[in-house]
Each structure stands twice: as C-alpha cells, then as structure tokens.
Amino acid sequence: MSCLSTLMRCVGLVVALGLLLSGCATTAGAARISADISVFHEMTDFSRDKAIAVMPWKESQKDSLEFKAFKTLLEQQFRAQGYRLHEGAGQPDLVVFFDYGIDSGTQQTSVLPSPQFGASPYPGGYAGGIHYRFSPIFSNSYPMPIGGSPAFGSTVVTSTLFTRYVNIDIAIPDGSSLKKVYEGRLKSRGNCSKLTQLMPPLLEMFFFEFPRASGQTKTESTNWAGVC
Fold first, then answer.
1. pLDDT at residue number 3
2. N or C, which end of the chain has less CB nearby within 10 Å?
3. E strands of 69-138, at which residues?
4. What is the domain partition of the chain in residue ranges?
5. What CATH class does 34-108+159-212 carry?
6. Least-confidence region, from 38-42, 82-86, 124-128
C-alpha cells in the first residue's frame, strides 16, 4: 500500500470516528438531523385560513418559559402554512395541543479500526518485514514515517444516544367539548440532548408535507447548523 493511500485511509478513519461521536452526518459544513414522523387524522377541511390556539399538553407546562419559547416556534410554523393565530373573544377554529421532551439517553458502544504507528519506525529499520524511512512531510522536528503501512487495531468508542420527541394533537371546538381530528408524533435519535438547539429543525421536519397522509410513518431529514 502506498504512503498516500495509507494516509487517506487514516484520515477516513478519523472522520468516521468524529461522525460517530457527533451522531450527525455532515455536508457542506452543516450537520444533518433526521426524524420519524407518524400521523393519523380525520381532517376533511384542509383550508389554511383558520385561527389556531396553541395549548400546553400538560398542566406542568402552563407556566413554563421554555414552553412559551417553543410555542412561539410552533406558531411560526403554522403561520408559514397559512394559518393565523386566534385573537380576541370567541373560539378558535382549531386548538393545537403541544408536547415535547427527551429521555435520559442510552449508552451505545462501537468498535472502530484504528492505525497503530510506532512499532519500530527508525530510519532504515524493519518492522514485521516492512522497511520504514523518514520523510519530513508535516514537520522538520517530528517527521512522519512513510514507506510502509501501519498495523490496524481497534478502538472502542462509547457515546450516549438520546431520543427526542414532539407530539401535536389538533382538535375542533364542538360546543362545550373538543373533537380530536389530528395526531402527529415525531421521534428523533442522536447524541445531542439540548432541546433549545434541536427544536427548530425538529418542528421544521414535522411540517414537511403537513398535514400528511393519515396512517403513514415517514423519515425526514434536514440540515442543522446548531452546536450541541
């Protein structure tokens, strides 16, 4: 194996290790995040010129500043779809119940091959029948051995994988009661546990093809420039 191909293989392993630790694939400098979205609904009127009111799913969210911030993000997505926010007296056309969260994470262990340098890297020396010589590729003080292939061992990498979720139900006011007409469930797994960073792309994916066909689950993905 040539010096160049050995070096490229090592670089590839380093990149693979980095992607495993981050839990994201990268393209053009942006991370990629994905989610599974399942929808069931009985909606018959798909017109968008309706007033909506977003409500907390749980009583504990009612006074939460975090919920208030995420509610604003959700309302922005509905407005982008053509809906308007309910204001003033009277009932809204649609009541949206919003829930979200993240679990405590599960440990994931992977084994990756890793190059083993330094067996006997002396000028003119031999190691395992391979002749090594030095060439100052990166530094005059610390030249890199070339002329042979390093051995490949393995590295155990442990990371924590989190499950993030978003639940959205939509109901129509029916007198003094509510009739549920929509259930949407999003689940996403990855190494980032910061919902403040994740909520914008999660909601963006949720509204791809909204309201979607009933009874289907689809995997969506999008670029994500956040830092976790």
1. 46
2. N
3. 84-85, 94-102, 106-116, 125-127, 130-135
4. 3-16+109-157, 34-108+159-212
5. alpha beta
6. 124-128
User: Contact at 8 Å (CB) between 126 and 198?
Assistant: no
CA dist 192 → 68, 69, 224 (Å): 22, 19, 12
The span from the CA of 26 to the CA of 15, in Å, is: 10
Q: Give the contacts of 114 (CB within 8 A, at least 6 positions apart).
A: 13, 17, 152, 153, 154, 155
C-alpha neighbours within 13 Å on the C-beta side of residue 212: 22
Tokens representing residue 108 in the block: 């994931």
Residue-wise pLDDT tens digits, 100-157: 999 988 988 877 776 665 544 444 444 444 443 434 444 444 444 444 555 566 788 8
> Tokens 């994470």 correspond to what residue?
105
Cα(206)–Cα(170) distance, integer angstroms? 14
Cα 16 from chain centroid (whole Å): 17
* b/e code 107-137 from CB counts within 10 Å (16+ = b): eeeeeeebbeeeeebeeeeebeeeebebeee
22: tokens are 């981050």
**Cα distance between residue 156 and residue 114, in whole Å:** 10
Cα–Cα distance, 99 to 47 (Å, whole number): 24
Tell me what percent of the residues of the chain surpass a pLDDT of 70. Answer: 68
